[in-house]
Design brief:
Order of helices and strands: EEHEHEHEHHHHHEHEHEHHHEE
Largest sheet: 10 strands, mixed
GO molecular function: acyltransferase activity, transferring groups other than amino-acyl groups
Keywords: Acyltransferase, Transferase
Family: Belongs to the thiolase-like superfamily. Thiolase family.
Distance between the termini: 18 Å
Structural class: alpha/beta
Organism: Nocardiopsis ansamitocini
Pfam families: Thiolase_C, Thiolase_N
Radius of gyration: 20 Å
Number of helices: 13
Length: about 375
């Protein structure tokens, strides 16, 4: 099987819902990172064979195949097609998988994997509003026969995880505080500078709260009475985009590209859709087994902090060193622009491996429907 290499990875700052980035059209936001990816890698854009873009709320300004619109909005060649995909929060991580699989199959040589989500302009759930407004089921009769009419939501799933693993509110808040501390330190010392392309006058991630405290978190109202969850221990509603260029060995040689990392393993696993957020645990076990690696071989992990119990349970179950997990903070501090987050995390992972000199990196995230992607890469 052919090898696939990451030869470029760039992202916007992650903006807050009512910040400056919220006014940027999603197509223009996507265009911004696509143009920068082309500029940084020096690739002839006409050689790119496809643009695969993750986006969850494909409604309004994010409808009509955003990948194609963003590429053309960037002024790039009409000959390159684009497709927009939805694997819920893992959409642009799946874009990386599809791009790498195209290269590893030998049928493609240069593919862009990207993601965009403007949750300030297109609210979460905008693409399901028609069903809700018209009294239509989101799941259908077959689902009801199998799972009944119980609540299916990421919020309930996170609370169920707290109950299963015995996490109290104070445990979650301590984790959240550490996420902000790590992210604030990373921003202060410039660890994100090489991966970020400024946009709309914003050059740094906006959601980090270096002055937050356990006392401030303790004053927040739980998402539901009796729950351990508050807004402080959940990912932020955000705005952002990212793009990654995947190349074959032949393309690297022909275009004079510089590999940053090699794709080692691509795995995808489903788990309980009611718990929804637990799939990264079995998915990581599958990926490590197939790669012939142990958790101790992984130097850096990026796992999406949709809610604090997700990385907490993952770290506990896998026996990972907490220092290697989200070393520069996660979505609790940095934000979670849904369909863009997978590509954002991959961009962070590639740059952190190169900065730290680590060999293997692992990325995973929970996804709607009880799914998880796992990507293992090796620094070149």
């Amino acid at each position: 099987m052919a090898e696939a290499f990451i030869v470029g990875a760039v992202r916007t700052p992650v903006g807050v819902r009512k910040g400056a980035l919220a006014a940027v059209h999603p197509a223009d936001m996507g265009a911004h990172v696509l143009k920068e990816l082309v500029r940084r890698t020096g690739i002839d854009p006409s050689a790119v064979e496809d643009v695969i873009m993750g986006c969850v709320s494909q409604a309004g300004p994010q409808a009509l195949d955003l990948a194609r619109t963003a590429w053309l909005s960037a002024g790039l060649p009409e000959s390159t097609p684009g497709v927009t995909i939805d694997r819920q929060c893992g959409s642009s991580q799946q874009a990386v998988h599809f791009a790498a699989q195209g290269v590893m199959s030998g049928t493609q040589d240069l593919v862009v994997a990207s993601g965009v989500e403007n949750m300030g302009m297109v609210p979460m759930g905008a693409n399901v509003q028609f069903a809700l407004d018209n009294g239509l089921s989101l799941y259908g009769e077959g689902w009801a026969e199998r799972y009944g009419t119980q609540e299916i939501s990421q919020f309930r799933g996170a609370q169920l995880m707290c109950e299963k693993w015995g996490y109290e509110r104070e445990d979650l808040e301590r984790y959240s505080l550490e996420s902000h501390r790590r992210a604030a330190e990373a921003r202060e010392v410039g660890r994100f500078d090489a991966e970020i392309v400024p946009l709309a006058g914003v050059s740094h991630d906006e959601g980090i709260r270096p002055d937050t405290t356990l006392e401030k978190m303790a004053g927040l109202t739980p998402l539901r009475e009796g729950w351990a969850l508050t807004a402080a221990v959940a990912s932020q509603i955000s705005v952002g985009a990212a793009a990654v260029l995947i190349a074959s060995e032949r393309a690297v040689a022909e275009h004079g590209l510089v590999p940053l990392a090699r794709i080692v393993q691509l795995s995808l696993v489903g788990d309980d859709p009611v718990y929804m957020l637990t799939a990264p645990i079995p998915a990581t076990r599958v990926a490590l087994h197939k790669a012939g690696l142990g958790i101790g071989d992984i130097d850096v992990t990026e796992i999406n902090e949709a809610f604090a119990p997700v990385p907490m349970a993952w770290t506990e179950e896998l026996g990972a060193d907490p220092a290697t997990v989200n070393p520069n903070g996660g979505a609790i501090a940095l934000g979670h622009p849904l369909g863009a987050t997978g590509a954002v995390l991959m961009t962070k992972l590639v740059h952190e491996l190169r900065r730290s000199g680590g060999r293997y990196g692992l990325q995973t995230m929970c996804e709607g429907g009880g799914q998880a992607n796992v990507t293992i890469i090796e620094r070149v």
